[in-house]
Amino acid sequence: MGQYLFNLSKKGAAKGQTLREQASQLLALKMWGVGAKTPNRNSFTPGDRVLIYVGAPEFEFIGHAELASATRQWTPEEAGRYAGSFDGGVLFSQTQIWEHPVPMKTVLPELDLKETNPRAIAAGRCRWL
């Protein structure tokens, strides 16, 4: 089972909504778009766990999920429901949106950087419990 960090940033944001609102909608849909240049996109498998993070200006972890699929193209029905710009992505079997997001500034001091692989973090994989 893999563990990954999925990030939503201004680059992929829709106007008129916060990043947290957009990410929460994707979690509620149980869909997450994955771009063609996303590191490890071909490594995602059902059962992998994902921690959801939204970037500036919020800088918060907002929930977690379990993958139901590998990365794939959206079906016509899924493409009709997915509001983002990606042609494909992953489906979630389970999602949880946290009522109280956890700010990055709270998490960083708790990390034991000697036990964390910086290459894994840079590649989009994250070791977490």
Task: Please give a quick description of this structure.
The chain is α+β, with helices and mostly antiparallel strands and 129 residues long. The chain is built from four helices and six strands, in the order βαββββαβαα. It has one domain: ph1033 like fold (Roll), CATH 3.10.590.
Describe the structure.
The chain has 129 residues and is of the alpha+beta class. The chain has a single domain, classed as Roll (ph1033 like fold). It is 20% helix and 32% strand. The protein contains 4 helices and 6 strands, in the order βαββββαβαα. Strands 1, 2, 3, 4, 5 and 6 form a 6-stranded mixed sheet that branches. A hairpin with a 5-residue loop joins β3 and β4 (60-67). The longest helix is centred in the first third of the chain and has 11 residues, at 19-29. Residues 125-129 have low confidence and may be disordered.
DSSP strand (E) fraction? 25-35%
If you consult CATH, what is the topology? ph1033 like fold
CATH top level? Alpha Beta
Number of helices: 4
CA-atom Rg in angstroms: 14 Å
Helix fraction bin: 10-25%
Whole-number tally of structural domains: 1
Mean pLDDT reading: 85
The largest sheet is: 6 strands, mixed
Structural classification: alpha+beta
Unreliable segments (pLDDT under 50, ≥5 consecutive)? 125-129
Overall geometry comes to: globular
- The strand count comes to 6
